[in-house]
Please model this.
Amino acid sequence: MKAKTKGRKYTRKRNIAIAATITIMATIIIISALNQQTKKETNPPKEDPNKYFLFLNAEAQGQKLSGSTTALKIEYLQFNLIPVGGDAHDVVIFAEGMTNPNNYWYQEIKNGTTQSIAIQFGTPIRVIKQSDGTYLIEIEIYSRETWRDKHIFKMRIDEEIGNYVFLKEE
Model:
């Protein structure tokens, strides 16, 4: 008497169907990989925002920190932003402690156009006097054309009125 074999017996049609499925899946994966490669090549590399934008006429105001001769609390920062590397799209400006961060998104700023930026700090930022007598105020900026980076305003006290100080960019 013949012993029955355990396991599946694949028919010829079933083997062809499995081979066709594997071939189709491999083709889809290869096409997808080639599309990703093409997309990477068509997107231009992002630029440094400190070269893509000009930062001009920066001014800040704040107060002296009580009991300190070197620390200030900055409450307000204003500057002009000008794209010089081309039109800037989806421009985002961020600084710690700023009020309403959503207000500092700009859909488009045309090349060479001045955009006035005024940042109010709900939580004043604390800055310390550097050895050269300046104060450094830092913001983050990026757009579709640039990578995310910091811009540092190097400022000096321009005027003091009582406890209030007014700074200008050096």
